[in-house]
Amino acid sequence: VPSSLGGTFCYIEIAKKNKITDMKKYHDYQQKQNLLIPPRLDSLIDSNDLCRVVNRVIDELDPDTYESRFRGGGRPSYHPKMMLKILVYGYCMKIYSSRKIALALRRDIAFMWLSGRQNPEHNTINRFRGDYLKEALEQVFASVVQFLLNHGYIKSNDYFVDGTKFEADAGKYTHVWKKSAEKFSSKVKDRAKEIMEEADLINEQEDLEFSGKDLASTGSHSELTPEEMRAAATEISKQISDEMTGRQKQRKKTLSKKLEQEADKLQKYNEQLEICKERNSYSKTDHDATFMRMKNDEVRAGYNVQAGSQSQYITTFSVSQNSNDATAFKAHMQKRNELKLPPVDTITADSIYGTEDNYEFMESLDAQCYLKYPTFHRETHGKKPMFSLEDFEYDEVNDQYKCPGGRELLFFYETSKQKQGGNRWFYRVYGCETCEGCSLASQCKKTKRNKRLHVNHKLAKYRKDTKTRLLSDKGFELRRRRGFEIETPFADIKHNLGYRRIRLRGIKKATAELALVFIGYNLRKAAKATLKAG
Ligand code: SF4
């Protein structure tokens, strides 16, 4: 009876009818069966298994990239190559916890094979990841990318950049805001000044009372530091003498104590401002993490990660403490140079990257620039603004514009605007002497004032050139590909690999962990490509 028709059942029924009792209903189940020749772990692993890809790639890396930190001496360490293999394989298999990797080393055949049946403890794995390999992992990442390029996994020379935010290992309520620290610091200084002024006033009264014994002033009270405040507190304490009444002594003691307390507070706020530096906030748990708005609109401590992809493989990444993608672009591209990765032909990014600084920086690179700018989509798809700068004719000789209504807009003055990152944007302002009686006024301007144009000639030129490139066939193809070339890796890492939160604290350790994440992502993709190619 064919098995599709319930062959086993029929066979059992027939056997029952014919009173056959010694038939075999199940496979043999012998838990305690010994094997004459123990199997090799290697023979139990599929030839296309992911762990074999990890093994091969790490074996082919230059050992100097990860061994330079090991000086030797003392008890022999676990081999860095083995530790690197189990860490990378762990990140490929969505196992990010050192405890779970340690457990897998005792249970999982692939881990056992990679480690040669060695069982490092979880804190050894963690120390290795966070301390020994901290500096080396970025270089390991670059070597893996080079491997993928050399072996033809990465075919495209078009580079797509985007930013994504990862939560830091810090609580929601661990924030320190720079503005609060500045406000409280100034309030402390005001209170301290009041205390010191009161102390000086008491001194003046005492000078009159105990004439001939001038008491030292508490200081200039201008820009106070915690040290000055402590010195003033000590001075107030020293001024207590036996000639004073009990009330006077008590008052001086209170003032000195209050000043000491304010000095401690000021020191705390100064330390907070020192940690903040250029940032607006930081987390008390991870000082390098900045509070930023995440994809789900919540404000959490995190890092802004810039990543670039080629053929959907992540080929460069950089970690920024600033939530603005545009300001992190330059550092990201410089990181690519530091890692000595080969140059690319084109660089494509979304409209947030189209700033004057970034266009200027792109001129120093050999790659063609396809960075969109904020108004590109509106100019090409949406309802075009009735009168944009393009509709005003520029007269370079006289440095003036001619409007669609045929009137002249003369140069008035130059102005500038502070940008994120410290630089300034410079504008030339042109204005129409009178727009009175113009039939186009309602479409040309929103206010009653005469029309004014704020023009950054340099940026306008960059935008014009980039627009031509973006509207070309190549530009159209790159814009179409941008969505899936870089967004797909982010979605895969965050959704399929479930990696949304960095487990290590501090920007260096976070960078090291992200290197492992991106190596894991790239090798998973390479393993799939190998399997597909057969
Ligand atoms: S509103 Fe002024 S600037 Fe605009 S078209 Fe009329 S005259 Fe020219």
Structure summary:
The protein is an alpha+beta fold. The protein is built from 19 helices and 13 strands. Strands 1, 4, 5, 6, 7 and 8 form a six-stranded mixed beta sheet that branches. A five-stranded antiparallel beta sheet has the order 9-10-11-12-13.
Rg, alpha carbons: 35 Å
Low-confidence stretches: none
Decide which structural class fits the backbone. alpha+beta
Strand segment tally: 13
The kinds of small molecule bound in this structure are: iron/sulfur cluster
Helix percentage range? 40-55%
Separate helix tally:
19
Distance between the termini: 37 Å
Query: Globular, elongated, flat, extended or rod-shaped: what is the shape?
Result: flat
Strand percentage, roughly?
Answer: 5-15%
Average of per-residue pLDDT values = 88
Largest sheet properties: 6 strands, mixed
Describe the protein:
There is one protein chain. With 534 residues, the chain is an alpha+beta fold. It is 48% helix and 15% strand. It contains 19 helices and 13 strands. A hairpin with a 5-residue loop joins strand 10 and strand 11. The longest helix is centred in the middle third of the chain and has 32 residues. The mean pLDDT is 88.
What descriptors fit this protein?
534 residues; alpha+beta; 6-stranded mixed sheet; 5-stranded antiparallel sheet; 19 helices; 48% helix; flat; binds iron/sulfur cluster
